[in-house]
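Form 12-C: Joint structure prediction
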Amino acid sequence: MTKHHQFDAIIVGGGGAGLMAALHASKTANVAVVSKLHPTRSHTGTAQGGIAAALGNMEPDSWEWHMYDTVKGGDYLVDQDAAEIMARDAIDAIIELEHMGLPFDRTPEGKIEQRRFGGHTANFGEKPVMRACKAADRTGHMILQTLYQQCIKNKVNFFNEFFVTDIVAEDNICRGVIAIEIANSEVHIFHAKAVLIASGGFGKMFKVTSNAHTLTGDPVAAVYRRGLPLEDMEFFQFHPTGIYKLGILLSEAARGEGAVFINDKGERFMERYAPTLKDLAPRDMASRYIYEEVRAGRGIGGKDYVHMDFRAETINRYKSGPGGKEVTREHLEKALPDILEFARVYMGIDPMKDPVPIQPTAHYAMGGIPTDADGKVLADNSKIVTGLYAAGECACVSVHGANRLGTNSLVDLVVFGRRGGKAMADFCKQASFAPLPATAAVDTIADFDRIRNSKGAERAAAIRADLQAMMTNYVGVFRNGPDMQKAVDGVRELKERFKNIKTDDTGSIFNTDVLETFELGCLLDLAEITAAAALRRTESRGGHAREDYQQRDDANWLNHSMAYRADGKRDVGITKCDISFDKKPVTITKFQPKERKY
Amino acid sequence: MKVHLKIKRFNPEKDSKPWWGEYDVDVEPTDRVLDALHQVKWYQDGTFNLRRSCAHGVCGSDAVRINGQNKLACKVLIQDVGANITVEPILGLPVIKDLIVDMEPFFSHYKSVMPYFVNDEPLPENGRERLQSVADRERYDQGTKCILCASCTTSCPSFWANGQYVGPAAIVQAHRFIFDTRDRAAEQRLKILNEQMGVWRCRTAFNCTNACPRDIPVTQLIGEVKRALATGEIR
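Section 2 - Result
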């Protein structure tokens, strides 16, 4: 039995991008948000340090500087027209959030308070600038709560704990989505004029990651399985400051407040690598330099981690606080309460007394579903899929290029969630419902029947653990051809094992056994594309650092990669075809590529 | 280390009443209870179910009763609860399956207190933010930490006695807006909380404050709402 629904617009995902889109689209359209989680469980809520906008509340700032930092941070793979839109719109979007009641921290004058973040500078790279609008170190939580609250106020429709499995599109026109109601396993067909995908990231393909268990990229895989391209999948951000082994994030806001990296010799090593920004160098660089230290035998105790030291006395000794000013322990406790607690709870370390062991953690997909600056999804380098939109981490506009700057993820999701929502509302005013194919849900039903009745020998958890170890080992901070080939081959072997899965739960109520297996299939597809795209790109750029091709190669690689399934069809179960790649030009407007130094 | 887990199981498709599942798992002392529960689900019995997402105490999905106390499974380390661990669903909400409860009554109470910012006055003419002093911002800070995990409400004896009571979490959410100087709907929220199923059901048992994984002084915030009602002043 399938259930049918009809809405002007369906939004897949209840995080920041989805809720922002829902608020704007629902002003004129009949909208429903279909989300795997209750919206307040979404991963936007774990974003910590801030959201950038050139408000200039603390010191002079301009959107051009923000745009420049974004372009340079992305190692010039950023589409500059989109980066300009983001940096300009950010100011308006943050003010809009404040008007929705978001509890930002305040300056003595009562304005939104801002702090420093990695790679954000004044006057085109001159010195760090206070641009990140903040609410202690739970800025993402405040954004998610505020947007959800406003959705309640505006009576937005929600289908919570509905798992979207497929996108219904034919003849390049999107017609809706298919979802499983987790509570009872019923299949729902959502017929819509417009669909916006805002499903977030897919970092669970890595072992050490800051990402939630639920970040498996299911709708992104669905898009790919239906023959649409994914862009720049080789660019995955490793955040330098994950808690050692656990990968739980300790915000870059710590370094914004003055924290420094220290190696086994007690040296503040970032001074050597990035003389101007030092510990506030962008994430890709900081992650590489941490591992350079480890490789040189200067990891703590010779191991694979370094220390982040954010004791007030250390910050004051190095004069690394904002503007070189003295900081107090009381200030740090107030500015960074959550990450101090994470270190205390999960490591048993009080960062006010001792330095914290950190290591890079897989954090953010720069790549994803290609869109234009209004969230419209691309079917190739230029053709739009009618009625299909994407925004937030799952999308690739591309404003992050080869490496995202800290705080720009929240900027991305509010700016492009808003633009996508508005664009959808406009589209719905003039569009009619394209007919649903009679077979819309057939593949989903077959997929789930196959998994539910699978009586093989393999535990999904074991395959997932092997995938995660392989991706962390072979497609991590530093990469090389032979290792990435091992990853590509390895993922394909795992796909074979995936056919022989063992399912325990054959029931209907909250059957997360089946759902987790379906999620694993999505991760396998996305990991295969990530590894294959990385292997193909024979240069080093931003977050893609190759030992066998150490230089950036603008002559050959100043372009986006577009990954398609080679056969253009969808099959039940696991994707079995090869991946075909194409290139897409980068849009360059104001800033010509230069060597990237900080 | 070896850990013995006793988990309250219930599958309405198969079971007429709840039963105790017993499992031995091998985990690190510094692992989370959630990691131990995952060991069971992933390698022993795939039919076992719980909600979880972020796994570090922020998303609010995995509130459960661990050794009789409401906790987030991802925020309690094995070394802090020992080698024998009992895990049950939180109390006072209908069990759907195993550790998963129906959160709908909880969210419906939450929605009943107008948990959203209201201010229809004209926006600042300069197109910028509404101003708020540091002290005024600080006044409602505690309530903004709430992650809606339901640990407080499902530890409250008044809520156990009567599920119509809005419960501590909803009052914390109301408090967050009542004491925000930018908001204009405090009167309406206070009126709602003055009703029979509102704030006066609180008997100051302090269970909520002890249960909160975000260290919100829940009982104190409820007291401040009571005081605002009693004195007619919001301070």
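Section 3 - Comments
The longest strand of chain A covers residues 186-197. Chain A has a mean pLDDT of 96.
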